[in-house]
Amino acid sequence: MICGRSERGKPPVEPVTLKILVAGGFGVGKTTLVGAVSEIRPLRTEELLTEAGRPVDDVSGVEGKHTTTVAMDFGRITLREDLVLYLFGTPGQERFWFMWDELSEGALGAVVLADTRRLEDCFAAVDYFERRSIPFLVAVNCFEGAARYPADTVRQALDLDDHVPLLLCDARERESVKEVLIEVVQHAMAHAADRRRAAAV
Question: In the chain, N or C: fewer CB atoms in 10 Å?
Answer without folding.
Answer: C
